[in-house]
């Protein structure tokens, strides 16, 4: 290979083959500089690319870390929610077990205190049932008759049925106030003495209904107004609600049909011929005399089921000198009445009695009653209690306390059913029923009525004038005089 420099490599002014021919130092330095610059630029570009790659990777790593943190936070939150839900579930179970444990202890204490078996506490939740009550009233108005548990629109799933034998106590969830009590005792589970004593009272009551004048209102005054309001809205003519079944009453009430009388005994039925009317007068007299035993049984029943309720009713009657329904006459001593204070009224229903949801006009929120099945002898037309005729012979007729969504399902109960309820503060009513031939469900209640309290106050203001009171003897005498007048009128 020649060592001579090519023409292209000569600097200006150089001659080929001369000693000065070949690259100059400056050219070499320039070329080195250019190469160094190019390398530097390339290196810088490479560095920039590397940095860009590293930045991109860092961004990816940061995004991945954010995703990881977010995912972990979400997972932790889910786990926390799961733990909280589990804690809440376990807490509810523990609280429920504690409540059940408390109820179990309470049931045992009640058993020890009352001597009653099969005590069951029903905790009524603290909730507003106005929508439930209004729906029931709307259904009554729509059907134009009392409620039926067979109605497809009746909220059966929202209603607690009670029918098993034993002592049932409904208490408020928060206050633990007693709202309703029910004692169901099959006849075969009573001891002989208790059964005989209760049956004596029951037969007195059933016989009394065959002599007493019926009550026509049937607990429907408020429903009449509801029907009228509905008629105005719908442009329909709606008559007064039809009574369903029979209602009777014994004891004292404030007289509205007898001018100038403040308080009187309920009247004898005046229907029928002379022989029938005389028989009714005799039955009225005999059964009224035995009301003392009825009052004793009801007094003992309420006192055993609800001692506080008994005391409150008794004290209220004493405060206003309200006479018990078994006190046949009102007499005064030294200008003041001698009063055996207790519930002034006993109401009795039968013949598929039913009424609408309502509140009573009682002076105190204590009402107590019995329910049982009676069989009528087709020959004598008298009522009896027989083992083969029980509540399953009458379908429906539940006692519904809408205020608390509880109903006593009589058709599935057995024997004697006793109920305490707050008549003047809780909506309640008897639902429609259908009885088998020859049987009926009797229902009763005792209470201190507001009318009796007002009547006694009016009598006091009138100086306890004996002419302003109609006792049992006067009531019987009036019935005899009415019968004689009817005889005379018939003869003439």
Automatic annotation (TrEMBL):
It comes from Paramarasmius palmivorus. Residues 1-37, 233-254 are annotated as: Disordered. Residues 222-433 form the Tet-like 2OG-Fe(II) oxygenase domain. This is Tet-like 2OG-Fe(II) oxygenase domain-containing protein. It comes from the Eukaryota. Signal peptide: none annotated. InterPro entries: 2OG-FeII_Oxy_6. Residues 25-34 have a biased composition (Basic residues).
């Amino acid at each position: 290979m020649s060592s001579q420099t090519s023409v292209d490599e000569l600097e200006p002014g150089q001659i080929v083959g001369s000693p000065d021919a070949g690259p100059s130092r400056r050219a070499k330095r320039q070329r080195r500089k250019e190469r160094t610059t190019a390398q530097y630029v390339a290196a810088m570009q490479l560095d920039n690319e590397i940095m860009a790659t590293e930045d991109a990777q860092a961004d990816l790593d940061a995004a991945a870390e954010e995703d990881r943190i977010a995912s972990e936070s979400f997972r932790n939150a889910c786990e926390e929610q799961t733990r909280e839900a589990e804690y809440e579930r376990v807490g509810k179970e523990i609280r429920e077990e504690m409540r059940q444990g408390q109820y179990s202890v309470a049931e045992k204490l009640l058993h020890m205190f009352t001597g009653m078996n099969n005590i069951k506490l029903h905790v009524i939740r603290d909730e507003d049932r106005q929508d439930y009550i209004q729906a029931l009233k709307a259904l009554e108005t729509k059907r134009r008759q009392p409620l039926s548990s067979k109605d497809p629109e009746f909220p059966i799933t929202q209603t607690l049925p009670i029918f098993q034998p034993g002592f049932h106590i409904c208490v408020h969830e928060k206050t633990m106030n007693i709202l309703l009590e029910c004692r169901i005792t099959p006849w075969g589970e009573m001891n002989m003495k208790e059964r005989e004593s209760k049956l004596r009272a029951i037969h007195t009551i059933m016989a009394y209904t065959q002599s007493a004048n019926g009550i026509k209102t049937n607990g429907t005054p408020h429903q009449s107004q509801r029907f009228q309001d509905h008629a105005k809205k719908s442009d329909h003519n709606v008559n007064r609600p039809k009574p369903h079944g029979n209602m009777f009453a014994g004891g004292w009430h404030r007289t509205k049909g007898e001018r100038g009388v403040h308080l009187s005994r309920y009247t004898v039925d005046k229907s029928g011929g002379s022989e029938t009317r005389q028989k009714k007068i005799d039955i009225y007299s005999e059964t009224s005399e035995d009301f003392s035993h009825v009052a004793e049984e009801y007094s003992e029943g309420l006192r055993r089921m609800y001692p506080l309720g008994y005391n409150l009713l008794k004290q209220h009657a004493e405060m206003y000198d309200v006479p018990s329904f078994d006190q046949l006459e009102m007499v005064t001593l030294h200008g003041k009445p001698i009063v055996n204070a207790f519930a002034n009224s006993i109401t009795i229903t039968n013949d598929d009695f039913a009424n609408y949801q309502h509140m009573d006009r009682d002076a105190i929120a204590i009402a107590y009653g019995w329910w049982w099945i009676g069989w009528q002898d087709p020959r004598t037309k008298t009522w009896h209690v027989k083992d083969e005729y029980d509540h399953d012979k009458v379908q429906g007729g539940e006692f519904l306390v809408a205020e608390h969504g509880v109903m006593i399902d009589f058709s599935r109960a057995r024997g004697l059913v006793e109920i305490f309820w707050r008549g003047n503060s809780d909506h309640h009513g008897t639902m429609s029923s259908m009885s088998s031939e020859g049987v009926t469900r009797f229902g009763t209640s005792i209470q201190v009525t507001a009318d009796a309290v007002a009547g006694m106050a009016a009598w006091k203001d009138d100086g306890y004038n004996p002419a302003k009171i109609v006792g049992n003897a006067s009531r019987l005498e009036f019935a005899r005089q009415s019968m004689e007048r009817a005889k005379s009128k018939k003869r003439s």
